[in-house]
Amino acid sequence: MQIHWHRRDLRAADNRALSAAADAVEADATDGETGGVVPVFVFDDAVLDHAGAPRVRYLLDALAELRAWYREHGSDLVVARGDPASVIPDLAEEYDADRVVWNRDYSGLARERDARVRRALNDRGVARESFHDAIFHEPGSITTNEGEPYSVYTYFWKKWRDREKPEPVDAPAADALADVDGDDLPTIQELGFDDPEADVESAGTDAARERLRAFCEDGIFRYEEDRDYPTRNAVSRLSTDLKFGTIGVREVYEATATAHERADGDEVDSVEEYQSQLAWREFYAHVLFYNPEVVTENFRTYEHDIEWRNDPEELRAWKDGETGYPIVDAGMRQLKREAYMHNRVRMIVASFLTKDLQIDWREGYDHFRTHLADHDTANDNGGWQWAASTGTDAQPYFRIFNPMTQGERYDPDAEYITEYVPELRGVESDLIHEWHELSPTQRANAAPEYPEPIVDHSERRESALAMFEAARGDE
Questions:
Q1: CA geometry: angle at 133 spanning 131 and 138, to 5°?
Q2: Are 78 and 219 in contact (CB under 8 A)?
Q3: Is beta strand 37-43 parallel, antiparallel or unpaired with respect to 78-81?
Q4: What's the start-to-end Cα distance of the chain, in Å?
Q5: Residue 179 exposure: Cα atoms within 13 Å on the Cβ side
Q6: For the segment 126-156, what is each residue's pLDDT rounded down to a tens digit?
Q7: Which backbone phi and psi does 6 adopt, to 5 degrees?
Q8: Which residues of the chain fall short of a pLDDT of 50?
Q9: What are residue 39's DSSP bridge partners?
């Protein structure tokens, strides 16, 4: 018997560890040995401690689909809860497994957990093997000429782009799977969470493949031009699927390569721009692997500590989407409603928190971790530290987004804003984009229920520059 331990690979197809376990079973069968692959998922409380209700909802829905796939193929998903360092060896003993396999994860928490599992299996005399699966190129495989990991994305991207990409692997055949019975999945309440307020998108491989198919028929060919506009539907919406591994990155890339072959003119650049976003995802995974401390610490150090402001009321207004800056509020309300936020808007709200409100990026990161369905430690940390000018290859501290200009540029007709900020429906877009300049009387006449700006952007911009210059030690 072989055990495949599912973690962030909630799929049967394009799953390298699962495929390797199935191949081993089939090889044993030719030698007259019997057995099969036992699929396992463990609810780890150490992971759940860092989770949010939207992610747990997506996780349970994805597991339900994965379990259904196994049942259709004569097996089942064995579900347990506890410390994997105890649970996995116990399951290996229960099923008389001679090997346990899994796909690697690159966060500090995951690596420490996996090391404990390896030691525990070794103590029981059970073989174990981990596989490279979640990203194309392992940490350490793309480095500078001196062998150091890259801290500048552009150089990383050039090497990533030119490296050969492996093809997807097939799902295991039914006869390679063990005939086992799994228990029911726990409810979200049993895991310690309430049902999320947000309407979390559909989970599982079928839903991910449908999103990929739709994107590669249309949005990918407009991606470079339209991706920053939240109402133009030019993004893939695959971030949650890739985070949980309900679809493999090789399958996604293969679909983009097929689209690249069909592309013409500017469409070619658009496809390559989307592929570069897959490289960004990988770049941040490499950064996290070599710098696990960035989850709580600045990647970039300044001569002095950054003197972040501590204003609970301004932080509350930001979280609730009541800052009086329409594009910021629309983004924060989209997050609350959908457990998702358009990427351009993520940059805008992150800049507003760290530069206009001058509140520590860790407050924003923690809020996103709680409310995003697609929260990924490497990507989210990289994005927040980019916006805060504390990360690798980050936005320079003196380039500060103007939230009103950003709203007017990327949502000129205020369609996105009014979708999520109903108080502004019926207000002319020009007035919405001039909200910070209107008099109290004009605001009251236009949208009496919508708040006035909680800060003056121009003043806070100067204050932010002074804050960073003091941290730099500039006189």
A1: 85
A2: no
A3: parallel
A4: 68
A5: 3
A6: 999 999 999 999 999 999 999 999 999 999 9
A7: -75, 140
A8: none
A9: 4
